[in-house]
Amino acid sequence: QLQLVESGGGLVQPGGSLRLSCAASGGAFSSYVLHWYRQAPGKERELVARISSDGRSTNYADSVKGRFTISRDDAKNTVYLQMTSLKPEDTAVYFCYAGRTTWGRTYEYWGQGTQVTVSP
Fold this sequence. Notes:
With 120 residues, the chain is an all-beta fold. The chain contains no helices and eleven strands. It has strands at residues 3-7, 10-12, 18-25, 33-39, 46-51, 58-60, 68-73, 78-83, 92-102, 105-110, 114-118.
C-alpha cells in the first residue's frame, strides 16, 4: 500500500518555473511506472508525463514537450516534474500516479494533487 503526497505547487508568473515532487511512503517506488496528470476546471484529466520503472524511458504530452521534465529518485522514493516556461494554460491541479501489474494483479495509487496557477 503506497501513500503519495505531492508538493511544490503554487502561484508563478508566465515564463517562470516550478518543480513538483511526489513522495511515497508505505512501499518502494522501484517497480512502478510513474505518471503526472493534471486537470483544469471544466476539462478532462490529462496525462502530462510518464517515466518507466527503470527510468530509461519518458514520454510527454505534446502541450508540454520541451518544457517539462519528469525524473525519479528511487532511493528517495520520489518522482519529480520540473516545469519551465510556464503558460497560463498550464494552470491545473497536478496529480502523481503510480501503477504496476505483477502476477496478473494490478496495483495503482493516486496522490491528492497540488495546485499550480500561472498568472501575471
